# Entry
Amino acid sequence: MTKRERERARRLTIIVGAVVGLVVLVLVAGLLYQTVVIPNSTVAKVNSDRISTGDLWKLARFDQYQRTSQLQSLLQYQNQIDPGGAQGFFTSQIQQLRSELVNSEGLTNRVLEQMIEETLLRQVAAANNITVSDAEVQAQLESLVAAQQSFVTESQATATAEALAVATATPSPTPSPTPTSTVASTLTVATVAPQPTATVHVQTATEFESGLKQLLDNVSQGAGISTAQARTLYTSLIRADILRTKMTEQLGDQMPTSGEQIHARHILVSVASDASEEDSAAALSKAISLTQRLRAGEDFAALAAQYSDDTGSGQQGGDLGFFPRGQMVSEFEDVAFSLPIGEISDPVKSQFGYHIIEVLEQQPGNPNITAWLQEQKAAAQIVRSLTSARLPNLPVVPTQLLVDQ
# Structure
């Protein structure tokens, strides 16, 4: 080989090495971008707190695993109880889970909103000095593992025993002796043998650890995350659940309510949609007269049966039974839900005419933390930056779960 050829070969080697090095560098840079840069990027910011893309990916995989497990269970129940789904016992739940599992982007967005709400929950809890201890989380985790093995925890067994002790602590009154006849004294009364009390097994520390390991192994395999990540997810979700309960207990008076109902009755003096001013005035005059008679002490049910143009409730003394918000026209509802029990309202004008209302009972609603969180989200500074590049690579859901066999 001549000197020129050797120089040419050397230059070619340098060029090839540079190209190979550049390719390797690009591949490494791409790998680092996918495994380090993107997972540590911010997918949402809630006030001053950030949510990382990597945390979103892990929770999305966990959520998909949970929904897949639910779907498998429902399909098994359907095969046992309603083969072929002929009765449709589980149809709506199965269809909903399937639609959620086939839309990975929609699933990821729901998980992101969940993370935003939990972040807000922690922020408001911190501002109100509401905390959850590690011991509370551990107790809840032990209960979760025990339930999956049909065991109970020591604290659950103690609470049950204390409840039974309270229930049997009050002695029954001893009846006074009564004379018995000779015939009666010779009869043998059959006694019923006491039924054995069902025994429960209290979970041991060893059983908890083995049950937890099995649980985390299942999640790790099904969701494609490590067992350490699975445990972190479980404990964080348990902490958020306990925090929701504490927030509801301590801040419930600041939250919207749901489930509120009232039991009311009414007398309707109808007014046609095309009624003249004279007819409308006459209807109002009649309603005012009935209101005065009721306030003077006349029987509501009797007047409703005689004068109410709502013949259905009129036959029941004007009784409408219990009803929640959203069932009646707004004019009627606004007055009825603000009226004290037993007070007769002034005539209330609606599209049907004039109503005279009396509230008989009230069932207060419960704090609605879900609606409250929506209010918190509307008032918070939230920046979402979920893009296609930040969508998780979720495991493929088995086709046989998504279509009827």
